[in-house]
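COURSE: Structural Biology Practicum
ASSIGNMENT: Worksheet 4, Part C
STUDENT ID: 0417
INSTRUCTIONS: Below are two proteins. For each, the amino acid sequence is given first, followed by its structure token string. Answer the questions at the end about the second protein only.

PROTEIN I
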Amino acid sequence: MTSSGLLRNTVATAGVGKQIELEVWRHGDKRKLSVTLGAMPEGKDRTAQPSAGATETGPLGTTLAPLDAAARKQLSVPDSVKNGVVVTDVDPGGKADEAGIRSGDVIVEFGGRPVGSPQQLKDQWQKSSGPVAALIYREGRTLYVAVKH
């Protein structure tokens, strides 16, 4: 698959319980994976609601907040996730939306570098060109997405 949108569509049309083959790049190496698709957990609202005035508009068409103690608790982010910024809103059609980033995600790394604040993500975005890998913590799992510049 050549884009996160194509991956999202493939997963949506395959359905729960189906096995699909993926070819991924991890640290410069191409790997083939066989994955079985699962259902999204229901019932719990995983959208982050930061304290008033804590958000900042991000460069990817997002609103970002620091990963503080309240966000960690609400999103069940373990202490092993040392840093990151919380995505509190995603603009439809923006770079983050196209990459599959959603509200409640924690952006841990961007372009292979740790992210500790919304400003740091903005700075890393401005220094980058082409597709940029973002490491995301989402609901107990980490995943990489490619963000087109």
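PROTEIN II
(use this one for the questions)
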Amino acid sequence: MGASQSVDPRPHRVLVGVSGGIAAYKSAFLVSRLAQAGCDVHVAMTRAATRFVGPATFAALSSHPVAIGPIRPQQYPLGPHIALAQDAALMIIAPATADLMARCANGFAPCAVSTLYLQVTCPVLMAPAMSSAMWDKPAVQRNVQQLIADGVRMVGPGDGWQSCRNKGTGRMAEPEDLLAAAMQELAR
């Protein structure tokens, strides 16, 4: 390495947005794997997500407070969406429910995750997770196409057993697949 080149010693800041679906438990594994890979992981959750996995889980795995709702000036004086988006290398939304994808596709920001999505300038990966019936709806597919046109990279969904007791397309990508996609994106 030449004298003019320097290595940035700071780890990549990766934001993980968690929305309210049963697949939220997979996001805990993802956050853990990202931290183990040396990323500086910060988590934002929708209120609905907290009914599936508690914020304490993500705080422990990421070593950072979790952004959920109203601005807490002591943690984020400018708001979590501004503070967390600064210097972010990547945002991953997993699970990305039909509701959250609709919010993001249409610029609607009633929660910490959608507000953060609208604030970031880094690449965004989304891991859709919903029943196959929802995934197949034309409205959902329109939102997916809008997000792709906006530059979002979709990871999944996969096929298989769903919590609704059916098999089909709509399963959230596995944490290892999301980790691989994240590492690929961070290497660019």
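ANSWER KEY EXCERPT:
Q1: Residues 13-70+77-186 form a domain with the Rossmann fold fold (CATH 3.40.50.1950).
Q2: The chain has one domain: 13-70+77-186.
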